[in-house]
């Protein structure tokens, strides 16, 4: 079945960087869109970056554009989220997800498959 395992979270100072990893299984990664979402305490789940299916395009939320980069490695069935210039507002649990569609969307209601997430805390 479709599964994601996220890793790479931790505590980082403002202005620092982190690289999150997401290992996917149960489906062919380069056929389907996979997105990174995040959820901070008391807030709704927010889509931050997405790698689309066969066409291989990327999408970013305005809040992370220019700071985050999403990368796909189909040989390793993995997705990565390189996060730079981190700010306290980036503090959240970060998740991988897919709706087994080919196009990116940041509407979390359409996503059926989620990982357990990895905690990112940006604080001095």
Give a quick set of tags describing it.
single chain, four-stranded antiparallel sheet, 124 residues, seven-stranded mixed sheet, 11 strands, mainly beta
Outline, from the CA principal axes?
globular
Distance between the termini: 40 Å
The percent of residues in helical segments reads under 10%
- Name the structural class: mainly beta
Binned strand content: over 45%
Poorly predicted parts: none
Rg over alpha carbons: 13 Å
Overall pLDDT score: 95
Order of helices and strands: EEEEEEEEEEE
Our count of helices gives 0
Beta strand count: 11
The biggest sheet amounts to: 7 strands, mixed
Offer a concise description of the structure.
The protein is mostly beta strands and 124 residues long. It has strands spanning 3-7, 10-12, 18-25, 34-39, 46-51, 58-60, 68-73, 78-83, 92-98, 113-114, 118-122.
How would you portray this structure in words?
- The protein is mainly beta and 124 residues long.
- The chain has no helices and eleven strands.
- It has strands spanning 3-7, 10-12, 18-25, 34-39, 46-51, 58-60, 68-73, 78-83, 92-98, 113-114, 118-122.
- Strands 2, 4, 5, 6, 9, 10 and 11 form a seven-stranded mixed β-sheet that branches. A four-stranded antiparallel β-sheet has the order 1-3-8-7, with no helix packed on it.
- The chain starts with a strand and ends with a strand.
């Amino acid at each position: 079945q479709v599964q994601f395992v996220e890793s790479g979270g931790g505590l980082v100072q403002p202005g620092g960087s982190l690289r999150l990893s997401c290992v996917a299984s149960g489906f062919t990664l380069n056929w389907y869109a996979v997105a990174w979402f995040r959820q901070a305490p008391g807030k709704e789940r927010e889509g931050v970056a997405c790698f689309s299916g066969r066409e291989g395009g990327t999408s970013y939320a305005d809040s992370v554009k220019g700071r985050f980069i999403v990368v796909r490695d189909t040989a390793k069935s993995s997705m990565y989220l390189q996060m730079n210039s981190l700010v306290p507002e980036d503090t959240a649990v970060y998740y991988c997800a897919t709706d087994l569609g080919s196009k990116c969307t940041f509407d979390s209601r359409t996503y059926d498959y989620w990982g357990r997430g990895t905690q990112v805390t940006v604080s001095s």
